[in-house]
Amino acid sequence: VNSLEQAEDLKASERRLTEYIHCLQPATGCWRILLIEVSVCTAADPPIFHISCITLIGLFFPGIHNRAVVPSIIAARGQRVLAEYNMSCDDTGKLILKPYAQ
């Protein structure tokens, strides 16, 4: 495999990772807003505290805390895999080539 093919493979991998993380952003934003709203209602509104608290607990069971940070989870997993190839990625999925240490 020549270096041109390797460069094209790296570019394709980077495009796919950034595309995937970018597509998750709108849903992640909605989950974050919902989580913040319910948390604020739980902390700030005494008349509906019990309803807000039950709603907050109900949201944590299906995993809202994971859905609110899924792009970070994907980036962290990518960094673990890429570390074997002396590379990394940022939170947006852009590849970072590390210098080769001899």
Rough outline: elongated
**Overall average residue pLDDT:** 90
Rg, rounded, reads: 20 Å
Strand/helix succession: HHHHEE
The biggest sheet, with number of strands, parallel, antiparallel or mixed sense and barrel status, is: 2 strands, antiparallel
Number of distinct beta strands? 2
Strand order of the largest sheet: 1-2
> Which strand-content bin applies to the residues?
5-15%
Terminal CA distance reads 22 Å
Helicity level, as a percent range?
over 70%
Q: Compute the number of helices.
A: 4
- Structural class, please? mainly alpha
Low-confidence stretches: none
Description:
The protein is mainly α and 102 residues long. The protein has helices at 3-44, 49-60, 64-67, 70-83; strands at residues 87-89, 95-97. The protein has a two-stranded antiparallel sheet. The radius of gyration is 20 Å and the shape is elongated.
Question: What descriptive keywords fit this protein?
Answer:
single chain; 102 residues; mainly alpha; two-stranded antiparallel ribbon; 4 helices; 2 strands; 71% helix; elongated; cytoplasm; NEP1-R1; lipid metabolism; transmembrane helix
Please summarize what this structure is.
This protein is mainly alpha-helical and 102 residues long. Helices cover 71% and strands 6% of the residues. One of its GO terms (biological process) is lipid metabolic process.
